[in-house]
Structure formats: C-alpha cells, structure tokens
Amino acid sequence: MSAKPLLATDRAALILQLVPYLIGKGEVSVAEAADAFEVTPEQMREMVEKLTVIGLPGDGGFWQMANDLFDIDWDLLDEQGIISITNSVGLERTPRLTAREAAALLAGLQLAASLPGVGDSGVVQGLLAKLARGASAAPADVIVAPDAVDDVRVRVAEALRHGVAVSFTYHAPDHEPTTRTVDPVKVHIAGGQWYLQGWCHLREAMRTFHLERVSDVRLTDIPIAHGSDAVPDLFEPSETDAVAEVRYRATIATLLADFLDRATVTGDGEFRDARLRVADERSLKRLAARHGGDVEILAPESARRAAAAWAEAGLAQYR
Amino acid sequence: MAKDPTRSAPEERLVNLVVALMATEQGLTKDTILTSVSGYREQSEAGAKKDALEKMFERDKENLRALGVPIETIGDYADPDDLREARYRVPTAEYELPADIDFTPAELAVLNLAGGVWSESSMSADARGGLRKIRALGNEVDAPIIGYSPRINLREPAFTPLQRAIEQGRVAEFEYLKGGDDTAHTRRIQPLALLEYEGRWHVYGFDLIQDAERTFLLSRIVSDVRPTRETFDLALRDGAGDKALRGLQDVAARQRALVEVAPGTEAALRLHRRAIPADQGIHVPYVDVHIFADELASYGPEVRVVEPAQLRDEVIARLERTLAVHGGAA
C-alpha cells in the first residue's frame, strides 16, 4: 500500500477517477474503495468528504445551492462505512487515459503478447487500438522488443494449461545435466529471461529453472500435485547458501541491480562492498569475468581463486 | 476542521475548475472563473491580488493539462496578445473515455496482466492508474491469467525525464559514456522513442551534434537528463519505435561473431540458441560489441572468439583485468 504523500494534482486526479468509480459501484465500503485507489481508508474518507464541497460555480455571485454540489449519504458513511453518492454534478464518465498511462499499458501488452496463448488469441490487437483511441494525447513510443517463442516455452505453456508435469534435461552451469520432472506452477519473465518455478520431483521441493538451460522437454501424463504450493521469490536465497563478499565499482551498480537487491552494501567511495548469500558460489567467477575488473570476489577464498583461474584459463586459449 | 474559510485545499479548486469548465458550452472567461469558481471566488472576495489569482489559474490550467484534462482556449482572434476575453472550456467528448470503448472479459484479463509488469518502477503507478480508469467502466472480467508473472525491469533514472521530453517534443541533453570510452561526452538529441531490447533500455532519437539518428543505452547515461527549451515537430515521433526496433535488428543481422564453444557447457547452451552453424565454430549475431564481450568473458574458457578482432580484444581485456584484480596467475 502506498503511504507516500500525494501532491495536490495527484489528489485531484484521484477525485476525477473516484466519481465514476463510485457511481459505477452504487454503494462501496471505504475499505474496498481505499484498496482500489491504493490509499489508506483515512485518505479515502477524506477524499469523499472533500468531494461534498465540490460543485458547479455559484451563479451571479450567489453561494452554491445544495444541489450544485456533490453529495453523499452521510448516515451510511458514518454508521456503516459505506460510500454512496446521492447527488452528482458532472464527471460521471471515466476520464481518458493520460499519454503516460496509455504508454505503460501498451508496453505491458507487448510483453503479454509474447506469452503463448495470449499473443496468438487476437485479443492484443484489439486492445492496442482501444488504448490508443482512449488516450488524451499520443503516448510516447515505448517499445518492448518481441522475443522469439521457442519450443521449450511452448511446451511449458502447454503443461501449465493442461495441469500436467513436464520432464526435461536441466543443465545448470558447472553441474552435470540432470533429468527433471516438474509440476509447473509459474513462469517468471524478467529482463527478457524466462524462468519456470515448480515442484521438482527429484529434489522434492520448489525449484526455479532458467528456461535457456532446459532442453528435451516433453509433457508427461502425471497430473500436477503441487500446483497450489507457495512459490518463493525468484532469487530468494536459502539459509544453506554460502555467504559471499564482493567489491564492485559504484558506477556499475545498475548493472548488478538484481544481484544487489539481496545484498547488504557498505562503503561510499569509488568502490562498494556487498555481502549476500549465493546459491552456488561457482557462479561468482562468471560474474567477475563479465564485469572484467569492476567486480572483485573477496570471499569465499575458494571463489576468489576460482575467478583468477577462470580468467587465466580463458586467456590461455589466446596464447 | 478549523481553517481559513477563504483557503480551500488546492485539489478542491482544481476539481471545481474541471466541473465548471465541463458544464459550459460557450466557455468561461478568466474573470468569470476567478469570481465564481469555488477556490478562486473566496480569495477574490477576500481581496486577493488579481495578479496572484491569474497566476494561480495559469498554473492550475497547466497542471490539469498534464493530467490529461483537455482545456480548450477560445481566443479573441482580433488581438492574439489579449487573452482577457479568451474563454475556456473542457469539451466533454475529449475529456471522457469514448462511450463506444468497451472491454470484453478476455481483454480485461489480458490488460490486468499487462498492467502488472512494471514492478516498482515509475511506470507502475501509471499502469495502475490506467487500469483503474478502465475498471471503472464496470465491464465484466475473465478469471485472471495464472501461471505467468511477466516483469519488465526498469531501473534507469534517465527513463522518466526522457519519456517526458518525448511527450513534449523537447530536445534533451545528457552525458553519455560510450562503451569502451573512459570519458563521457555531451549528447544533445531529439528523443523519439524508448525501446527495451534484449532486456536493456535504449532511447532512439536524432543526435543534433552527430547530425544523425542514434540509439543510446540508458545504462550508459551518466548524468541527469536535462530537458532544454528547444522543441521539435511532434510528427518526427511517428513510427519512431518501429524504426528503432528495425535499426537494432538490422545491426544484429549484419554483425556476426565467429566463436568456438566447448560442448556441454553453459556457453554452448546459451549461445547455440541464437547461433548459425559455421564450418568451424558458430556465428552469433550481436548488437553491441561491449555488451557481447561482457557475456563472452563470463564464459571464461568455455568460448574462444575467432573474429572480429575487436570483440576478441575486448574479451581478452576483460579476462586480463579479472585476473589482475584477483591476484594474478596462480
């Protein structure tokens, strides 16, 4: 729930949206309306009270008459916490989307269109046209480049749809490939990468699989048994993970954002130190080499040595 | 609530103004607004300076326009400099979501998914605001699309000011650290479109110093984005997003690296998906030599770059620096 202070213009925008919402609902509880508008119930009550001093201009210097103002059923609000508009003087219809609201939804749609079963349904094309027509000004072009949908993604989507387990070869870096059977629960798409979260029959636990490391996918006829289990956050570390310490150049912090989200960061100079749990310390050498010199593994010592050896072995190919 | 009766909350005045401007067909003059619309009227009556009230009205007008409220000025065309007799109104048809726009239950389910992709970025509040307006139409919605959690990462602070500059058709300046360079240089561009490609955000625009169309990585903008007073023709934006996308796709189709990968490794797994087989090794398309060198360096001994030479040198340089900061050769 957003608790940040709203500017007067933000509050005005909310009131403009509130009237059609309340009219559409007929009667709605303060709690439900607050939830829909992402404000606290106190803020919602305050907005509704403000609404009742808003109305048409007074005519010829006279004060506004009661029916020139918005009004609500005060008894209903005071006794039951329910909002109901009893007099409205305009604003009944939903305002158009702002250029930025339209841009945010249009870009989201482009990503949604890349999902098997969504993009090919014809729904997206119609939506693009409606959003463009429903905007108050031409939105800035915000393009999300489509990503080729490969066989692995299609198969995983089918398994999700049919509620059956999938079986595949999984090849995590620095590990031998294993054959997994997984009850699919959720496909996460982040930064253009696709991940499958599901119940792994081999590990008997929820696991996350990077779909680029998945091959030989086939659908099984085993119905999903753990489909409604809670899934952990995408990169949530576990208590058994090793603790790593990494020094990085402050200017590359955005590039390391996913990694630093889970870290405790100290220092304020050109370099910062981050301390975090990593699922597999062997992956650290890859991180270090990717940022060539801007990331230094401080601990564990084995990972630090591995990073040096990794770079050395890479260089040996060019000698 | 004890408060000065002449001073209502600014949001009340703003909404009162919208209600008044929508209720009029022929428009209201500034004088009428200042003396009759609640929020101004009380201050007029209390003897507030006309200058101050007019300034307040101008500000309110700009703020409401920024919210998408279409305030129309019906001017006194005899004297374009004299706005005293200008009248203002909000045409209902341009304010309201067109009455014939309705959303099917399936469309709303997809929109709900689309509106949720922005995580905690600035676009998230906009997406949710848009969804709220659409939901207020009261259409039925299908069951949510489950099983997918699509997210767009947006962490670059340059995004929001560039988006605003595109909306307003304003030239923007920023310091840009080109890949491989040690010092940043000032860029002055007409920003035309924002584009996420392979998980990275770019701005596409016309570079006024280079006098050519250019695409910049947002992560390499090292200063605040500075909007200027210089504007450009909004028509330049037409089709800019598609042009930017085609531009990057053309680069990827043109630039191919020849690399050799060790079978059964992470490098083989990741690179083979985008590769075209060669006689010896594989050809992999890439857009930016520095970004691709970052990826190839991460594979260490799993991949060897044959050509181009620049890519090979960049990978070698990364590995050498990695070796150096980790204490050199064992």
UniProtKB/TrEMBL annotation, chain A:
Residues 155-218 form the WYL domain. PROSITE patterns: WYL (PS52050). Keywords: Proteasome. Residues 13-132 form the PafC HTH domain. Residues 244-313 form the WCX domain. This is Proteasome accessory factor C. It comes from the Bacteria. InterPro entries: CBASS_pafABC_assoc_protein, PafC-like, PafC_HTH, WCX_dom, WYL_dom. It comes from Microbacterium saccharophilum. The keyword Glycoprotein does not apply. One of its GO terms (cellular component) is proteasome complex.
Automatic annotation (TrEMBL), chain B:
GO terms for cellular component: proteasome complex. Residues 256-323 form the WCX domain. InterPro entries: CBASS_pafABC_assoc_protein (IPR051534), WCX_dom (IPR057727), WYL_dom (IPR026881). Transmembrane segments: none annotated. Signal peptide: none annotated. Keywords: Proteasome. Residues 158-222 form the WYL domain. This is Proteasome accessory factor B. It comes from Microbacterium saccharophilum. The lineage of its organism: Bacteria, Bacillati, Actinomycetota, Actinomycetes, Micrococcales.
